Amino acid sequence: MRDASKLNRYQFETGTAEFLICVFCGVPPVVISEINNTTYAVVNVNALELPEGTDVQASNADFSGERVDSRLERRTKNWIPVVRVEYSPV
Question: What is the pTM of this model?
Fold first, then answer.
């Protein structure tokens, strides 16, 4: 999405990540987390229109009850590191 005004930003209670949420459909296509001075991100592939024949399987995840230190450790292992977020004017 090129227009930042089409995204709302939201943080849950822990404040450890920023969810960029589409104002049209309410889906967060990207989540960003700053951990030890490094920006990490994860892309919600369920929010994308994937090319035909792409084999991506949706799976549910439940992180309720996860401790903050465990959450940040999981992100540093599984999320995309060294991310730069830019918003281009329309």
Answer: 0.80
